[in-house]
Fold these 2 entries.
Entry 1:
Amino acid sequence: MQRSTLKAWFLVHKWTSLVCTVFLLLLCLTGLPLVFWEEIGHLTGADPEAAPAAPGAQPQNLDDLVNSALSQYPGDMPLFFGWDDHSPSVYVNTGARPDTPPPEMHTAILHQYTGEVLPAPQFNEGVMYFIYRLHTDVFVGLPGMLFLGAMALLFAIAIVSGVVLYGPFMRKLSFGTLRTGRSRRLAWLDLHNVLGIVTLGWAFVVGITGAINTLAKPLEQAWQTQQLGEFAARYQGRPRPERLASLDDAVAKARAAEPGMKPAFVSFPGTGYSGDHHYGVFMHGSTPLTERLYRPVLIDVETGEITARPQLPGYMTTLLLSQPLHFGDYGGFPLKVLWALLDLLTIAVLVSGLYLWFKRGSTEARITEIERSGLNGDIANGAGVAR
Amino acid sequence: MSAPTAARNPFIAPAWITVASIVGLVSALIGDGVFNAVSWVVFAALIGLFVRAWVKRDRKR
């Protein structure tokens, strides 16, 4: 590689890394507890344990469950109803108005078979929610999300440029070379290289899927405008219905229409997910892959009849598939532990990168360092290596 | 591990690691059971690569 090309890649790596490192450190540190959100929820009681259903017990009527939830929050209206795939509990989100944003929603968790309201703190309160907001939008909503998405993209560019620089540096060195007995800087540089390459594929995918996740709101809005807009147009000029058809019947119809699937959640009219005149019953499969891919069944809230079963557009499928690949919550507890360990190794890459920047010397010295390593595998004899 | 050796393609290891990472990421998404186990083995092996490098580190001055 020509010296000028090497220098260009070095500058790309340096500046993309420098700009995003502090924010990546924030994301990696806050991401660590979020990997174990479910387990922490169980330990702290935020995620209540629902007793197993008695043999032969039938689930409660969904309309009764919604009414039970509404009695907890007088004056609220139902917004979303959802099932927990791993427990016989359901949740009902309520709010003062149909477009209540998540931070202002109330949540009731109920036993699906007994109808008992399970004591649980609100999802939008507490330490984990604070960490979640820091991780997703630093408390400033969409601009914060998009900013963190931009940082994730810079991180991806830093990874690619890092791999390009790794080549000429490692030409005469074995994979995994870690020299800790010479200079401190060389030890950190080798550590940065080894960890950077070991975490390469994982960090790139987690970074890119994180960037995609920051586009969730705009993509959902585009989907609502584009696909749901077609259905909404048929109801133009008609007021939002005051009385809603039975939710229980609506879900039964959706189950019958999609026999191989089960309901994940239902959106009520006005929440933005199913227009002003429909329940959106979002069905999903039961494998790790298909449980992320929703199939909406739109049910007219006045007649209780199915209006449409639209396919999600490709960009929504991409968004939904990018979520597990970012969260690491799809391969059991061992995968979560490995996810956390890789997160820690990524933190070490970032910290070692910062150390190398503090001990940087001139750009020319660094380029010479890479060239010399590629020629004889040794950078300690000259090239301005700080000892 | 650190002795200078003949020129080799330094991108072979990153290429393998990338392929392995994709296999690990996708496997658990396809199914449970053995698919999960493949993901666990792949990511444990990647972390093992770093542990091996650390154990075999060159402490020569």
Note: Chain A touches chain B through 47 residues (CB under 8 Å).
Entry 2:
Amino acid sequence: MRRGLLEYAVLAIVKRHQEGIHGYGIARELEEKTDGLLEVKEGTLYPILHRLREDRLLNVRAERSDTGPSRKVYVLTGEGDRVYRELSFMLARMYEKLEALSR
Amino acid sequence: MSERNVEDVIGDYVKRTRKVLPKGREAEDLLDDLRNHILDSLADKSEQKPGVSQLELVGEVLKELGDPEDIAREFESTHPEEPATRRRKTIRLVARLVFAIAVVIVAAAVVSSVPLGQQEEPSVDFFTAFIVLMVFAVAEWYVRAWQTRSVD
């Protein structure tokens, strides 16, 4: 479940950056925007990014870096956008139902 | 001196991570990502904390990155081995084992049939030669596996 949420969070971050975002940027936003709620060790984010790329939810392009060799910039694919919207809808419904339980 | 040490620390971390990741292009690609992440994070921290040594900062960066074992665990769970790959690996392992045993049998047969010097009897019987050569073969196998891991 944690990985599912993490994948969703990564898709959400990448979607917000239409021009693309690199791995370090994703890690920073994840930490800052969730206040470390998902308790992600930054290194474990990369296998997930690779998986999302293999599943064709993310695309990668190379970008020159000031600090070293060229690095990858991640952008959302059409399929990634579709999956993200589906997940958003599903999560909203789940939240709604869970809230109804507590009323 | 400190710059060199920072490079060593990063190199050691990458080496440790390579050791625990499965071999392959995907893993090398992941190591490149980690190296870039370390450099980006280090540059970022250096800007935020200009008074702190690079060595201390790189320690922080690696702590945030996590243990190589955690990365490998995540990698293995997001990249489960395909059954076909597993089958190929098993076939290759069995083939190597059969080949090694065949070589040992032939070598033991040759050694046990060659007489030593003036004696007519061979110096060693087949069974002893087979056992000794098998011990060497197993030792060689282990050393080779250990060397392959060490080189990485």
Note: The longest strand of chain A covers residues 58-63.
